[in-house]
Amino acid sequence: MKLLDRYIAKSVLAAIALVTLMLTGLQLFILFVNQLDQLGKGGYGIMQALLFVLLQMPYEVYLFIPMASLLGCLIGLGIMANHRELIVMRAAGMSMWQMTLSVFKAAMIVIVLMTLFGETLVPKMVRMANDEKMQALNGGQSLRTSHGLWLRHQNNFIMVGTLLPDNVLRQVSQFQFDAQHRMIFARELAEIKYESGQWHAYQVEETLFHDSFTKTNHYQEMIWDVPLNPGFLRISNSEPDEMTLHELYQYVRIKKISHQNALNYQLTLWQRLIQPLTTLVMMLLAIPFIFGPLRSSTMGSKLLVGATVGFGFHIVNRFLGSVSQVYQWPPELAAFGPTLLFALLGMYLMWRSR
Known about the structure:
Shape: elongated
Order of helices and strands: HHHHHEEEEEEHHHHH
Structural class: alpha+beta
Radius of gyration: 26 Å
Largest sheet: 6 strands, antiparallel
Distance between the termini: 20 Å
Strand order of the largest sheet: 1-2-3-4-5-6
């Protein structure tokens, strides 16, 4: 039986690898075409576009792994069914549940590899891709925040106009309020650098607000009294797809402590947590199609159904995510709902085909 387990797992994994390779090639072409309208802006040329596409590609692969797993499982089991191998296995005493267990073992391999790859290299490569593209487009003058980055620390509200490498901030505005929400002072800081464990501000214009008058001060240099963590500053300036699970969790926790809205990041966190379960559900969903209503259909029909189911999951997942943001639904519901829906569909089809 172990030999049959390995044979089924090998067939399924080979098919998943083939589907992933095909989808990767298609996605590479789509990503590159999307960059054509930005060619020629600043220093963004063909080589920069190719670099961006190659660095962005692992994240795209990470996103469509559930669909690739479904299609690969359908192809692998479908080929075995067309060659009557599954019939021989069942005649030899291997039940459908044992075949399901074999697919489950293959799914574990996919999930472990996907999780390790997706939570270590992928976020770094996405951030590198976005940084390289932004530097090429603006001539290397800034790394981030074309529209400014807003931060809050206690009663301080801070807007960073430009974030440069090595923890250098430029065009910073700071507004501090008291407990009654009255402004204490406003500052314009030309540049802030993180040196020797402290933030040093240069060319500071400060306006103090008193009950009956205001006072303006100018400082060539001063110690900036906002203890921002450089690591958190980098995370705050990152998109959700540029963060690891740990960074997403830390960012959401800090946002909650400061009573700020982080629904988009919460949704991404829960979707990333559920991604392994989604991949498992998609792979197991292929089994009732092989033994159930599609057992006598052609390979083309199986692929069409698999693509329809995978695309349907993608649509439902995106739709619930957008709706949850608009109507303030719990992000856990929006992230887990599509996976639960398709898991119930798979259980129903499995029960029908037993």
